[in-house]
Amino acid sequence: MTPTQFTSSLTFLMALAGLTFYRTHLLSALLCLEAMMLSLFVALSAWTMHLDMSSFSASPLLLLAFSACEASAGLALLVATARTHGTDHMQSLNLLKC
């Protein structure tokens, strides 16, 4: 396993662990999801540069575009829940109250 593969997989696993263990605030969950997407972007970019294939060169940019869309949707949900519930604590959110 190369150092680049080790670093990207370790970053992904740390973000996944952060998402599973520290779910007190919605903002921390969104930041962990963003870290997971950025680690996948770095891994995919390194993989396409390693293979020297020009056909896969648009894949990291597509993943980055989807990550930006996910981040904007997550921030919109964060603002909406902060306005309706007054906080971003995950314990105060109840999906059955909708």
Automatic annotation (TrEMBL):
Stretch forming the signal peptide: none
Keywords (A to Z) from UniProt: Electron transport, Membrane, Mitochondrion, Mitochondrion inner membrane, NAD, Respiratory chain, Translocase, Transmembrane, Transmembrane helix, Transport, Ubiquinone
One GO-annotated biological process of the protein: ATP synthesis coupled electron transport
Membrane topology of the entry: Multi-pass membrane protein
Keyword NAD: yes
Main location per the UniProt record: mitochondrion
Catalysed reactions listed for this entry: a ubiquinone + NADH + 5 H(+)(in) = a ubiquinol + NAD(+) + 4 H(+)(out)
Cellular component, GO annotation: mitochondrial inner membrane; NADH dehydrogenase complex; respiratory chain complex; transmembrane transporter complex
Coiled coil location: none
TM spans (from-to): 6-22, 29-49, 61-82
Gene Ontology MF, one: oxidoreductase activity, acting on NAD(P)H
Family of this protein: Belongs to the complex I subunit 4L family.
EC numbers: 7.1.1.2
UniProt keyword NAD, yes or no: yes
PANTHER family, A to Z: NADH-UBIQUINONE OXIDOREDUCTASE CHAIN 4L (PTHR11434:SF0), NADH-UBIQUINONE OXIDOREDUCTASE SUBUNIT ND4L (PTHR11434)
Function description: Core subunit of the mitochondrial membrane respiratory chain NADH dehydrogenase (Complex I) which catalyzes electron transfer from NADH through the respiratory chain, using ubiquinone as an electron acceptor. Part of the enzyme membrane arm which is embedded in the lipid bilayer and involved in proton translocation.
Subcellular location: Mitochondrion inner membrane; Mitochondrion membrane
Listed name of the protein: NADH-ubiquinone oxidoreductase chain 4L
